[in-house]
Amino acid sequence: MTRANILNIQMNPKIGDKMYNCNKAGQFISDNSKEGLDLVVLPEFFSTGIDDISFVENPEEENKSGVIAYFCELARQFSTNIICGTIIEKAQNGKLYNTSYAINRHGEIVNKYRKIHLYNYLGGNEGKTITAGVTPVVAEFDFARVGMSICFDIRYPLLYKTLIKMGAEIIVSPSAWSVLSTNNPSDTADFINCWRAFNITRAAENLVCFVTSNLVGSGNAYLYSIGNSMIVNPEGKILYNAQNNECAHCQSVDLELIRRLKKEYPIYNLD
User: Which terminal CB of the chain, N or C, has fewer other CB atoms within 10 Å?
Assistant: First the structure.
């Protein structure tokens, strides 16, 4: 395969309403299924929004997740691979993890990634209830090798260096990149500019297609999610930017370009 169709979903979830949010995401997939999808990417916290109550009181049980089971069925129904955003997962050891699942076209779970870099800064308290993961993950799909990351990981370039050494051709980042609702417009504009720069840099420095699927809008009284979900090619070209709309977009990406550049510039061998 020399090209792949990636469906990038940007959502403003209804806080705590998993069924509503899953159905909305499912409708986006159904509406775009005629494109012949190779990969669907959902945002961080897409099934609950940023909601501490849902995270602590209503997590998904490890290996028994209703949300993941729902998307396993959609993957099979529409013959697409899915990066299932993130859920808060209660592991068998009783700890909570911010976890992203990789599901193949047959509706099978092929891998999962637990967020390594938690957001514990400038008022963030993710680590208060969530345990950090420790293992980088590259999911083997039928069309490409997909490196997995989540939101705040984007600030840690050495994680991405590890992923390309593991063979990643596409890297995904389900996100809930947000600012305080009290921020003035100029501060928000600067914040968005930094976000765009991260997306472009992670794609170009690693010679991958970089896909961020972000939340958008005022999901709760305190935070505004900035949207700007992106698909960026390995030359740093923004192929798609969702801006501040709740939407889904199918983008064809050039896998041959990625593979050719990796041969010409073996960045993964350089320290």
Answer: C
Q: What is the pLDDT of residues 42-86, one digit of tens each?
A: 999 999 999 999 999 999 999 888 999 999 999 999 999 999 999
Residue 6: alpha-carbon gap to chain centroid:
12
Provide the token pair at 196: 């765009």
pLDDT, one tens digit per residue, over 156-165 is 999 999 999 9
C-beta atoms surrounding 233 within 10 Å: 21
Q: Does residue 171 sit in helix, strand or coil?
A: strand
Where exactly are the structural domains of the chain?
A: 3-262
Q: Please give the C-alpha separations between residue 239 and each of 8, 141, 200, in angstroms, as whole numbers.
A: 11, 22, 11
Residue 212, φ and ψ in degrees, nearest 5: -110, 130
Quote the crossing angle between the two packed helices 66-78 and 18-32, to the nearest 10°: 10
Q: Which SS3 state, helix, strand or coil, does residue 163 take?
A: helix
Alpha carbons 256 and 234: distance in angstroms, whole number? 11
Q: Return d(Cα 177, Cα 60) in angstroms, integer.
A: 22
Q: Three-state DSSP class for 224?
A: strand
Give the angle 171-176-177 at the CA atoms, nearest 5°.
90
